[in-house]
Amino acid sequence: MQELTHYIGGAHVKGTSGRFADVYNPATGEVQAKVPLANADELAQAVEIASKAQVTWAAVNPQRRARVMMKFVDLLNRDMDRLAEALSREHGKTLPDAAGDVQRGLEVVEYCIGAPQMLKGEFTDAAGPGIDMYSMKQALGVCAGITPFNFPAMIPMWMFAPAIACGNAFILKPSERDPSVPLMLAELMEEAGLPKGILQVVNGDKEAVDAILDHEVIQSVGFVGSTPIAEYIYGRGCSNGKRVQCFGGAKNHMIIMPDADMDQAADALIGAGYGAAGERCMAISVAVPVGEETADRLIEKLVPRIEKLKVGPYTGGNDVDYGPVVTAAAKANILKLIETGVAQGAELVVDGRGFNLQGYEDGFFVGPHLFDRVTKDMDIYKKEIFGPVLSCVRAQSYEEAIGLAMDHEYGNGTAIFTRDGDAARDFASRINVGMVGINVPIPVPLAYHTFGGWKKSMFGDLNQHGPDAFKFYTRTKTVTSRWPSGIKEGGEFNFKPME
Fold it and tell me: Which residues form the Aldehyde dehydrogenase domain (predicted)?
């Protein structure tokens, strides 16, 4: 069995803690590798190396740092198929979906090529007699990121690319469920010209997370995962004086107005609800048709589309719609919530509980499910299922529909499907959700805008990627400079007004 490593100081390093986690092939249920779980001493070793390397890296001018990002983009394109295959093997995504995971991370790296422009300061000439004032954006030092299993390529790149472009060193603690791609990314960054020690990968669980949060040298922490853990990391990190951004759970609503193109809306819900087996923080898990007639038309369109979905392993060909969920525990939790939905009175229109894939009986596959007549007091509505389960909540009016999304504790993403420009503008203006789609089901912003939810979907004041990333990974220093001219007659002991 393969034994994975950490990546510390430019080399693959075996774990010394004696603790390991199993890495599964979700399609077969077999353990394919074991990954070491770092202790505080191993994390401290990586921090010591990073802190020494960062001083030299921060002194490299932004244009040269950007050239590393340029080369890294080339290498990502060169190795796209290799990265996608490794990602699919450990996560279970289809190959096209895995390549999309890499691509959306690559786009943030492309944005970071603009670091020289993003890191420019401000200057005021002659702010006073012989006085100039200017600001500088300087690197924080050593930064860290704690990333989830569902996007093992994209989210690490969303964090380490801008951090490194700003002149920081970065320690990545990826999910122990699919750690191979993060290790590969660190290798590629060094092949692109990044000095050893600037990007390191330390695998681990809560012990490594706590070591990150408590280490006094680490200046900032980024996290993506569940809301309870986001709250924990945000609280502990901030109390230790770190800059922290944490992105938590989601329950994303898509409102379907009576005038919407129902075929377009149904197709959008299929991709947004069942793609990647629903294991996306931006997945649409709640459809909200407005009016009984709209709901009936929508269900009529959805059922045959859902029943035709092809579920299978990533090796099953490009016509596979989605693969397994990541672990047996995840599968069990999804099925438990489905049973709860039935027990609480939701109508299970498409029942995938009996799904069984011949030859892959031990895999973590979950069939597609569609609930209708879900109410907001049900667990399947309140909780994030993170599986191939779509719930339909019927609203009798636009105001009721928008109220559902606004009253929910999560505020990551939402969408409306309509031909009415007035309704769309009102929805975009009023909704208290961070990312909004108008006839777009998964409104993930492109790299030059920022990504972030509201309410219990985000903790912190700056979003991921885009301009916010350069703010998060730098601090501003303001300099007031005076260069006297001529011979002065002595000291002055009071402030003179500006002339």
Answer: 13-479
Q: CA 217 to CA 11: how far, in whole Å?
A: 22
User: 112, 166, 246, 281: which is the annotated catalytic residue?
Assistant: 281
pLDDT > 80? residue 459: yes
Q: Which domains does the chain have, with CATH numbers?
A: 2-248+457-479 (3.40.605.10), 252-438 (3.40.309.10)
Quote the distance between the C-alpha of residue 281 and its chain's center.
8
Is 281 a catalytic site residue? yes
- Phi, psi dihedrals of residue 431, rounded to the nearest 5°: -65, 135
Q: What are phi and psi of 173, to 5 degrees?
A: -110, 95
- Work out the number of other CB atoms within 10 angstroms of the CB of residue 113: 20
Q: How far apart are CA 421 and CA 95, in angstroms?
A: 37
**Residues 368-410: pLDDT tens digits?**
999 999 999 999 999 999 999 999 999 999 999 999 999 999 9
User: What sign does the CA torsion over 116, 185, 198, 42 have?
Assistant: positive
Mean local confidence (pLDDT), 170-186? 98
Separation CA 403–CA 401 (nearest Å)? 5
pLDDT digits (tens, 9 = 90+) for 117-137: 999 999 999 888 889 999 999
Half-sphere exposure in the Cβ direction for 241 (13 Å, CA): 6
Scanning 308-438, the segments in alpha helix (DSSP H) are 328-343, 379-382, 398-407, 421-430
